[in-house]
Specification:
- The C terminus is likely disordered.
- The chain starts with a strand and ends in a 10-residue tail after the last helix.
- 29% of the residues are buried.
- The chain contains 10 helices and 5 strands; from the N terminus they run βββαββααααααααα.
- The chain has 3 domains: 66 residues, Beta Barrel (OB fold (Dihydrolipoamide Acetyltransferase, E2P)), CATH 2.40.50; 54 residues, DNA polymerase, domain 1 (Orthogonal Bundle); 50 residues, Helicase, Ruva Protein, domain 3.
- Strand 1 and strand 2 form a beta hairpin.
- The protein is of the alpha+beta class.
- It has a 5-stranded mixed β-barrel.
- Helix 8 packs across helix 10.
- Helices cover 42% and strands 19% of the residues.
């Protein structure tokens, strides 16, 4: 079992990262919340805490896969999520567009409406996740996640524009919140930076 891997980040795609470890290149599946952070670390050494599994294990030629996380705690959170009926590895990776602390906050507060906004989760799935995990994720809720997000006029405008461009409200708010903490406050700059973080071109959005 590969529990940790370190190498130079050489490429990044939706839901995957490629590491160069000596003469070997490894593809690592990653949750969506890590992608904005990784986008700024191309050609730099990165380390993942990993799980390995066989994709298509019931077939004739199963494919070995690695799933990577930024910390041991994040990996532990993912393992808990996998215990929910119907939450396989690929489904759970799609769901985690928000950080584990934010996801845990929604579960612990019983916010099924917000959970159902995440990719791959409907109302019934959200209710099942809360039923299975509520009371078990409090250790993952950070003080930052517990603080309400104060949206000023520019942030509200940026979130609205991002929604009109196809982002889910939850994802838009998470991106704006992170960018605001980095000192970006103007609505146009928030939108451009959010689109850049998601790998989209934002240069023509506000023309």
């Amino acid at each position: 079992m590969i529990s940790r891997i370190r190498g130079k980040l050489v490429s990044l795609g939706e839901g995957r990262a490629e590491l160069k470890c000596g003469l070997i290149y490894y593809e690592v599946m990653v949750p969506g919340y890590l992608e904005p952070d990784l986008a700024g670390r191309m050609e730099e050494p990165v380390e993942f805490y990993t799980l390995d599994f066989l994709e298509g294990a019931g077939g004739n030629q199963p494919i070995p896969r690695l799933v990577g996380f930024g910390s041991e705690q994040e990996r532990e959170f993912f393992e808990l999520l996998l215990k929910v009926p119907g939450m396989g590895i690929k489904t759970s990776l799609r769901v985690l567009k928000v950080r584990p602390s934010r996801f845990a906050e929604m579960v612990e507060s019983g916010d099924t409406a917000m959970l159902s906004e995440l990719p791959g989760i409907g109302k019934k799935s959200a209710e099942r996740i809360v039923s299975e995990l509520k009371g078990r994720l409090s250790a993952f809720v950070s003080p930052e996640a517990l603080r309400p997000m104060a949206l000023g006029e520019d942030e509200v405008t940026a979130v609205s524009i991002l929604e009109s461009l196809g982002l889910r409200r939850l994802e838009a708010e998470e991106l704006v919140k992170k960018l605001k903490s980095q000192g970006i406050t103007r609505s146009d700059e928030l939108v451009q930076s959010a689109l850049k973080a998601r790998g989209k071109r934002g240069t023509e959005v506000l023309r």
